[in-house]
Each structure stands twice: as structure tokens, then as C-alpha cells.
Task: structure prediction
Amino acid sequence: MLSRLELKVPLIIASGPGGFGEYAKIDGFPWEYVGAYTLKTVTYNQKYGNVPPRMYTRDGYMINRIGLENPGIEKFSSTLENGEYDHLFEKTKVILSLGGDDYQEYIEVTKKAKPYLGKFAAVEYNFSCPNVSKGGLSIVTDMTEWQNLLLEIRKELPDTFLIAKLGIEGGFIENFAEKAAQAGWDGVTVINTIRGLMFNDNREMLLGGLSGPNLLPIAARAVYEVRKKLPDIYIVASGGVYREEDAEQLLKVGADAVSIGSAIFQDEQVIFRIGKHILEYLKK
Amino acid sequence: MGSGCIGMEHSLITETIKKHLLTKKECVDITEDTFLITFNESIDFLTGQFVMVSVGSHGLTRKPFTIGKFGGDLAISVKIIGDGSRYIVETDTPLEVVGPLGNPFIPPSSNGVAVVAPSCIAEGIHLTEHFDIPLHVCSKTPLKREFAEAVSNDKIELHIGDDGYLQLLAKLKYEKHDWVFITGSKMMEKIGIKALADVPGKVVYVSYNEYMGCGIGACKSCAVITKDGVKHVCGDGPIFRGDEICFQD
Result:
């Protein structure tokens, strides 16, 4: 039996939309229903992100091509040491998200983050961002190398709750999840955005990652397949969760926790509504 | 407006961002597709700041609008471009608003001029009253007669069509203003910056429009490439010096 992530509510803010905790500034943010807050992915080097436009929405779906803009592990660590995230740690559990451009960067970012991991409830590794030319989704294209990477990270962090964030591209997600489990990882986040293409009002083309409510059935199927194959792995279900019934559906097909991502752009009170519903559902 | 920091600096600002419920006082037709909405309630804001307006289930993100005043009331101007903006114009339900957000506009002198599209007229009218400067409203189509008459005074001049805008820019080249504030579509701002770029002693400011997910610095979707690197409309703007922006074309 693998370990579990103990959360007051099995609701997790997804890496990306929640940034580095900026939502804490909004009056009345429903912290009581945030089981854990995943920070934006931090990479070994600072990333400036993609050229704009970076986002566009339509009915039911949105596309983003942020490109993992982040300060890099050195600057992030300084900010952490300066206590600028302390208010987040006081409010809820925090999950660190790490990424890299290649095998070595994943290892190096792990080593750099290691001294600080006592502060975090878990570390999620982003193996599925579709918006970077190197790393992200492309890291799983060489399955043997990726498996070695999973083993090496596990060896480096033997006591950390490790979550692999997986996408649906490059192979069957349940097979990727199985590799993670075989390498001794504790959990998987299922799914990330999917590569998509849209034109905005200015007729500019956006090549990015698709998210929004329309992702829900894809995420639900992915959770179902992973759970069928791996009865014990911890599953964070992510993708298209906007309503109470969306979260319930994902729990029914095998998720241990539900992740809220782009829905907080619409209204952060979605956390209150879904979190409350999850607790009521779990009581039944 | 210059900005204090580059967007990559992600230190958290600790002050609380407020949420408000605003009830509509009036919704006035400006053009065929653009409206000026005034509210019964007020918000403390500084010139140039914006708010994110919730559209409920009518869109996946809140929508950003610069705020101004009209007839002493808090006001936004809204161009209908989709379901979200249509909801804002048509609903009788109080609007949930987050803000004020972004940095204020602090002009370098009192000798400036504002140029706005109808979709930014609330901000334009506020600028002209606050800084006592002339306002040029540039619209692709004629303004509704009632509105044009209501705002008509010796400080406000109307210019219709693309030619009207280009003629105004040509005139502004030779007027003795230290700065020109332009806000409207991205194309309108870009044309304005390029037209006035080589005029000595004249600074162009734009209130930049870029698609926003959150409006508070979390999502990094509203990036602008500037000569100083990546900045963000929500945290570093919304107002930028035109000569700082690197256009991607």
C-alpha cells in the first residue's frame, strides 16, 4: 500500500492558475476548503515564458501558452527563505511543483529544492506541460530515460511524497502512471492541458494547452483507466472541474483528491462550493 | 507610465484586494456595440486603474475594465465582443467586481492630451476632468447623437473613422503637448505609438490591453514584451510608455 496525502479537504489548487499564492490577497478567499495549494512550476533556470498572446477563451474551453514563466529555483529559494510564502504555509498545505528542460535539470532542480522540502506536503513534478519546447511533455517521449529519471528522483528524495503530473499525450496515461508507481512514486496528477490551437479576436494564432470545462470527460476517463490499472496509487484528478458534480464524478471513478485549476479565474468561490460538496459526498 | 519592477519579480503583495457588488445606475448607448455603465456605489481608485468584472457562467474569466467617472458616478465603458461583455451590459443583477487593480497613471506634467476609443471613454472622461486636459474620442462609427450631445464640451473633440484618427495623429505631432495618452484597441495604440514615436519631447503612454486570466499577477497570461524584458499588464501596468513596448511583428 502506498502512502496517502492527508488533507483537511481533498481539494487541491492546481499548479499554474494559482501562481505563487497571489489569490491569498483576495478578500474572502475560501481557505477553509483548500486542502493544498500547488505553486506554479519552478524550473532550474529562470523562464521568461512565451511571447504574447498567451491566453484566450471560448465557450467551454480556453487555451494558454504561458510557457512556465517562473523565477528559477535560486530566486524562488531566496523568496522562500525571506519568508514571503509563510502566510501560505500558515493557511494550508503547500505542494511544490518542479520542472526542467532535460534529464539533468530535473535532477539539479531536485537537489536545489531538497533543503526546503520540509516545508512542503508533497512535490509534484511537471512531466506534461505542452507549452515549452524542451522538458515538460517532451521528457516522457523516451520512456527508458524517463523511468531512470523517476528512479533517480525517488533515490534523491526517499521520504518525500512524490507526485508525477501526467498528460494524455505520448502514450496511454495508465502506462505512464504504472511507471511512476514502479519507481516508488506515491501519486499522479491526471491530467494536464492538452495541445491545442485557437485564433483570438485579433486573428492571432495561439498554440498552447487546452483547458476548461470541456476537458472533464477526458480527465474522468484518464482517472478511470489509471485507477483500474493501479488500485493503490494516490490520484489527483485535474481537468475541467468547474461544478460540484464534476468533482463528485471524478471521486466516483477513483480520484483521491480533486484539483481546481482555471475555474478560479471565473470565481475563486468555486473552491467553497466544490470543497463543501466534496465533504458532504465523502460523509455519505 | 513607467513601472516599478519587472514582472518576473514575483514577491507577494500583502494588501487585500477587495470585492464589491455594484448596482447599475445607468447604461448609456455610445455606439452600436459600446455602452457606458454608471454605478450607484463607488470604489476608491486612482486614475488609470482597472477592475475585473465577474460574468458568472457567461465566460471562463472575469473581464478587465479601466475605471473612470461620468457625471460624478463610478463608470466603465464596455464594448460587446462576446457573451461575457454582453452579460455585463444586459444584466440587471448587481455586478461582482474585484479591484481596483494595477498602477495609477502619474503624468510627467499637466501638459498632456488623451485619445480614447469609445470602449475606453469612461477612463478618458475621467482623465480629462482629473488632469484638466483635452480629450479626443476616436470612433470607427458615429457616436449616438444623445451621447455625443451629453459629453460635448470645449475639452472633448470627436473624430470618426480611420481617417479621422490618422488626421488627429498628424495634428498631434505638431501640438505642444509633453505627452499623449492613448487607449483603445491594440491596433489603435500601436498606430498611435508609431505615428508619434519620432516626435522630440513627446511621450506616448498607452493603457495596454492583453487578455487576462486573473488580473492579480498569478497566471502570467497578460505578458507584454518591453525593452526591459517581460512585464505584465496587471502588475506592472496597465499603463506603459509606448517607447518601452516591443511589438511582435
In short: Chain A touches chain B through 48 residues (CB under 8 Å). Residues 143-156 of chain A form the longest helix (14 residues).
